[in-house]
Amino acid sequence: MTTTKPDRLDEAADQTAPALDNDQLETMMYRAALARGVEDLFARWAADNTFQGWWHPGRGQEGCAVGLMAALGPDDQIMWYHRGANWPIARGMALEPIIADLLGRTNGSTGGKGGGAPHWVDWDLGLIGSGGTLGTAHVLGGGLALAKQVLGRPGIAVAGFGDGTASRGTFHETLIQAAAWKLPLLYFCENNGWAVGTSFADSSPTATIAERAAAYGVPGERVDGQDPVAVHAAVMRARAHIDAGHGPALVEAVTYRVGGHYFGDVGNYRPDGEMDGYRDPLDVLAARLDPSVVERIRTDADAEVAAAAERALAGPIPDGDIIFDHLYAE
Amino acid sequence: MTQQTTEARTPRTTKKLRYQQAIGLAIEEEMRRDERVFAMGQDLTSLGGQFGLSRGLIDSFTENRVRDTGVVETFMIGAACGAALGGAVPVVDITFSDFMFIAGDEIFNKLAKWRFMHGGTPNELPVTVIAGTGVLGGSGAEHNSSLEAHLLHNPGLKVAVPSTPADVKGLLKSAIRDPDPVIFMPNKGLFFTRGEVPLDDDFTIPLGVASTPRQGDAATIITYSGSVPLVLDAADQLAADGIDVEVIDLRTIVPLDWDAVLSSVERTGRAMVVHEAVTTGGVGAEIAARLQAELFGRLEAPVLRVCGKDTHIPQNAHLEKYCLPSVEEILAGARALVSTERPVPQPVG
């Protein structure tokens, strides 16, 4: 995977990415293992119809989220998108409300309004939510960054999206205005090569998404999304640029969508051999840790997922009258 | 439901202002009152916005709080939603309400549905979108639509449609203070009308409270926005003939002051709705449906609609008057309404 040098990152910013210590790597490994465990759980439940709706698997993309989140601080706010549960889990959100949302139970983070593609939310962690239409994260993430600038509040806003959504007008409108105003906004793209059944190679006039940022004077860096440590370093460089008041930055993490667009999509449009050379991000991360530690982490993570699944399943199904809740302020 | 609650607080002073000046005054007062409030739109600092809404703002606040955007309607509304999620209180000038369609996802999906989808988190989403409605001579089919029924049909939004300078100030201040997204729709055709505006910083008019600018027993005419002056003109002419109609100015479409509408029509037994928006599927249709459902036995005549024609406003300003309800049509409708005799039911066969 090639990593192109960003266009306008400061020399100083380039040197501000501290190495991850062992505790941080273990936390990343643990959260990646939780995310994989939840992915396995949801796949089982999709197959046996435990929940209804359209689960969009995030398997294979865990490295992007754990690398990103390791570089974020408590004041940062995050607006992400529909694929997988990697983002909230990597940020440290509790599993019970995540799983209960998928099941539509009242112990979910949306209080029973969830389903197969949940809008997880955890305000204490800066997980503000996600939209059901692609491109939401650009404009709303831009708004979170705008509020920080207007109110003089610390931290950055992160807008997460896939390669397909980089075609939306919201990508461009937000980036041009955010650059003009130097908003503290990080665009984080998970380029998994597929927009439903259309490949990035077939639909993009540019070789990368990172290079599109240059049109607006914004630095864009492409990084190996299967290596969480490399993702972390790229995000640290980007946020040094943002924290210095230079405005938005873009990181494009190149990854793989191991599953279908949604669960049940068999992906017969994918060419043979596409996955040759695929590296599992959990293996890449594990290689940096002691094998016995990795084994303990994976055992602990599996136990936490199983316990959270049990608690989530015990949650009540909501009453019908909640359909009128939260239309207006209470 | 009464409209006296807030207005009864006698303002210290009033000043004669143009309708459009009251917009800038309300924003400026609310920006002074609450430092979270900021304004965003095209040409705000250079021209005072497309409609000169904000001239008073430019000298008073830094560019951090009065922001000029590019031609980015989608960003403007989406970022307003995001900024409100981030703790700010945005006031966005999208100029012509027709441009709401450019930011349709952001208005109809994000502003209206975000809290519903996220379990009521956050509880409050205080966004005010200023979207000019009504007809501005010669600006054509894509700058002259009256789109409030689209908003009525989409739960999660509130909609204000003021008809006087005082109502502009009172309703816009309430909109900015309101915890829900409010689409505030000043009528471009009223921009240069003048009226006394209370200068009291605390003068507000609650959303969801209609006014009754004329009282009468012969029939109820329910109207709002640019049609109010026409209806009042017609009502004066009817009064000269001894027909005293009651005129209700809704002031907000969401919430809609059903108490005021139903109690008046229960008393008069006759109702007509007048608005500039096209007739089919409009606010008048909703009111007619509700009146027949709740006052079926009391109605002396079918509920009438004298509303915009089911077409678009042509760019040729000469043709605009054929699209909109006229005083003559309102008079004819009212005379028909008050003279209708309830048919005596005939036995079948």
Description of the molecule:
The complex is a heterodimer of chains A (330) and B (349). Chain A has 330 residues and is of the alpha/beta class. Chain A has a single domain (19-266, 276-314), classed as 3-Layer(aba) Sandwich (Rossmann fold), CATH 3.40.50.970. Helices cover 41% and strands 11% of the residues of chain A. Chain A contains 11 helices and 8 strands. In chain A, the strands form 2 sheets. Chain A has a 6-stranded parallel β-sheet. In chain A, strands 5-6 form a two-stranded antiparallel sheet. The longest helix of chain A is centred in the N-terminal third of the chain and has 26 residues, at 22-47. Chain A is globular. With 349 residues, chain B is α/β, with parallel strands linked by helices. In chain B, 36% of the residues lie in helices and 19% in strands. Chain B is built from 13 helices and 14 strands. Chain B has helices spanning 4-7, 19-33, 44-47, 55-58, 73-85, 104-117, 148-152, 165-177, 228-240, 258-268, 283-294, 320-323, 327-339, and strands at residues 14-18, 37-41, 66-68, 89-96, 128-132, 158-160, 182-184, 194-198, 211-214, 219-223, 245-249, 252-254, 271-278, 304-308. In chain B, the strands form 3 sheets. A 7-stranded mixed β-sheet of chain B has the order 3-2-4-5-7-6-12, with helices on both faces. In chain B, strands 9-11-10-13-14 form a 5-stranded mixed β-sheet, with helices on both faces. In chain B, helix 11 (283-294) links the parallel strand 13 and strand 14. Chain B is globular, with a radius of gyration of 20 Å.
Brief write-up:
The complex is a heterodimer of chains A (330) and B (349). Chain A is an alpha/beta fold.
